[in-house]
Amino acid sequence: MQRRRRSRHRTFHAGVVCEMTTEETIALAGKVLTPNYRRQPVAFVEGQGMRLWDAEGKEYLDFVAGIAVDVLGHCHPAHVRAIQQQAARLIHVSNIFQIPQQAELGRDLVEVTGIPEGKVFFCNSGAEANEAAVKMARKAARTVRGRDAFEIIVADHSFHGRTMGALSATMVPKYHEGFEPLVPGFVSVPFNDPAAVERAITPRTAAVLIEPVQGEGGIHCADDAYLQGLRRLCDEQGIWLILDEVQTGFGRTGRWFAYQYAGITPDIVSLAKGMGGGVPIGAIVARDEPASVFVPGSHGSTFAGSPLICAAARAAVAAIREEELVERADEMGTYLMHRLRDLAKSHAVITEVRGRGLMVAIELSVPSEQVVAASLERGLLVNNVQPHAVRFVPPLIVSRQDIDEAMSILDAALTAVRAEAGRATAGR
Ligand SMILES: Cc1ncc(COP(=O)(O)O)c(C=O)c1O
């Protein structure tokens, strides 16, 4: 299963020699990097399509995709070409000047989101997109709607990012520990329960902020009726509906955006991850009304929307369109879930298969990190999104053959985990 490349790691990257072994990287990182990530003991040095190679030349099948980022797989030729050509021409100027690539990408985003008279604000990450959305919603509640409203209703187990505002909207207490006081004004209610949102609305409510599929929470899908109910409620009460499509956007769930399943559009949508095909970019697309409060001086970002990053994102969006990757995510997601349900018949430790499109998780009766480690050892990358849930978010270019290969590795990994558990019990 693990094909090896003949010592290629020594001359990777167009002649730039990659000298460090994985062990050397681990040792150096341990000395100089903050220890805020629980990193797997592997250092990748090259990627192509669905595959990655580590510093020792071992091959891996990638069902993590940089956590739902690498929608085109690794080093897609059109994406690489766009980056190379733009880098050779102009990399960064500033938002105090006009940037043609930014305006063109803005037009693409308005088109694919379907937000009427949409206006785009660019930033550099998902957290920043949510910061922008919250700032816009608060100011627009006051300026456009004439109400001194600032509260944002969010959902239990939500994840919106790590900056102070986005963190305050994130309802996972362990992420808050030590960082208090949080930004005030975020109110949490149970997910997928429109009546709970209705009860939480007060004259101070400015917006509702929801993930259509809770990603970091473990892949939990909002019902279409829930999103439709939120849209109705927000319209009736004059409240902005913000949808966080940072993880779900750009085809991941089998639609360009997950809200399209419910046939609604939000007032503001936050975007990142898949949009850049791997380069750091975030954005919000907002209806004209709330967007009107972002006047000169009200908000901004030095690096946002540079020629280089926008050229890369335009190439990614174009490839998603031209290669019909949204439709592919729908089809391959159905196949992946079908194969996982099959696997569950022979592995009782899989207690649930859930998801939409290529945003899928299995719930396990064993710790997910054991399954992730056993898969990694056998050349498959998956991620433990929760202590008992493994997430599958492969590039949207994934094929049936890739899924079949992943399932046979996972089958072996689950068998090994079960055997290990059996040995541990016998040894007690
Ligand atoms: C739904 C959602 N919102 C926001 C974020 C934060 O994005 P970033 O890590 O780019 O700041 C994430 C990241 O996982 C996410 O899944």
Summarize, please.
With 428 residues, the protein is α/β, with parallel strands linked by helices. Helices cover 40% and strands 17% of the residues.
Give the bound compounds.
pyridoxal-5'-phosphate
Detail the poorly predicted runs: 1-11
Number of strands: 17
Percent range of helical residues:
25-40%
Tell me, what's the shape? globular
Largest sheet: 7 strands, mixed
Mean pLDDT: 95
Radius of gyration: 22 Å
Helix and strand composition category:
alpha/beta
Description:
- By secondary structure, the chain is of the alpha/beta class.
- 40% of the residues lie in helices and 17% in strands.
- The protein has helices at 22-32, 65-68, 77-89, 100-113, 126-143, 164-169, 173-176, 194-200, 224-237, 288-291, 307-322, 325-346, 368-377, 400-426, and strands at 44-48, 51-54, 59-62, 119-123, 151-155, 186-189, 205-210, 213-214, 220-221, 240-244, 268-271, 282-286, 350-356, 359-364, 380-381, 383-386, 389-392.
- Strands 4-12-11-10-7-5-6 form a seven-stranded mixed beta sheet, with helices on both faces.
- Strand 2 and strand 3 form a beta hairpin.
- It is globular.
- The two termini are 34 Å apart.
- Bound molecules: pyridoxal-5'-phosphate.
- Pyridoxal-5'-phosphate binds at residues 125-127, 130, 159-161, 211, 215-216, 244, 246-247, 272.
- Pyridoxal-5'-phosphate (PLP) binds next to helix 5.
